């Protein structure tokens, strides 16, 4: 059995190859379909011991389409190109974050 190469892993889905734009769009659609509230967060570091990321604007309470969410990701990326950016999904019934995944890494690109 072969082990994975030693490298930093980030958030949910981090052990998979980088998500394509279509896969990211489907993940955002899943968040919306489940009734979760999407939000965008960014941070200069993705150190696992850093528990607080800065939220980009307010959560997208009224978002109805993936394009609304991805447009905000692009705006955040334009303003903070050297930061990690992730999308999170909040459950307003359980009052907690249900999922999150990285959509932009400094030096790499997505959306």
UniProtKB/TrEMBL annotation:
Q: What's the chief localization of this chain? A: other
Domain Ribulose bisphosphate carboxylase small subunit: residue ranges: 9-106
Q: Does the keyword Magnesium apply?
A: no
Compartment(s) where it occurs, according to its Swiss-Prot or TrEMBL record: Bacterial microcompartment; Carboxysome
The record's keywords, sorted A to Z, are: Bacterial microcompartment, Calvin cycle, Carbon dioxide fixation, Carboxysome, Photorespiration, Photosynthesis
The superkingdom of the source organism is Bacteria
GO MF terms, alphabetically ordered: ribulose-bisphosphate carboxylase activity
Identify the GO cellular component terms for this protein: carboxysome
* One GO term (biological process): reductive pentose-phosphate cycle
- Extra information: The basic functional RuBisCO is composed of a large chain homodimer in a 'head-to-tail' conformation. In form I RuBisCO this homodimer is arranged in a barrel-like tetramer with the small subunits forming a tetrameric 'cap' on each end of the 'barrel'.
Indicate the quaternary assembly.
Heterohexadecamer of 8 large and 8 small subunits.
Family indicated by similarity: Belongs to the RuBisCO small chain family.
The protein's job, in short, is: RuBisCO catalyzes two reactions: the carboxylation of D-ribulose 1,5-bisphosphate, the primary event in carbon dioxide fixation, as well as the oxidative fragmentation of the pentose substrate in the photorespiration process. Both reactions occur simultaneously and in competition at the same active site. Although the small subunit is not catalytic it is essential for maximal activity.
- What name appears for this protein in its UniProt entry? Ribulose bisphosphate carboxylase small subunit
From what organism does this protein derive? Oxynema aestuarii AP17
| Source lineage | Bacteria, Bacillati, Cyanobacteriota, Cyanophyceae, Oscillatoriophycideae
Q: Which gene encodes it?
A: cbbS
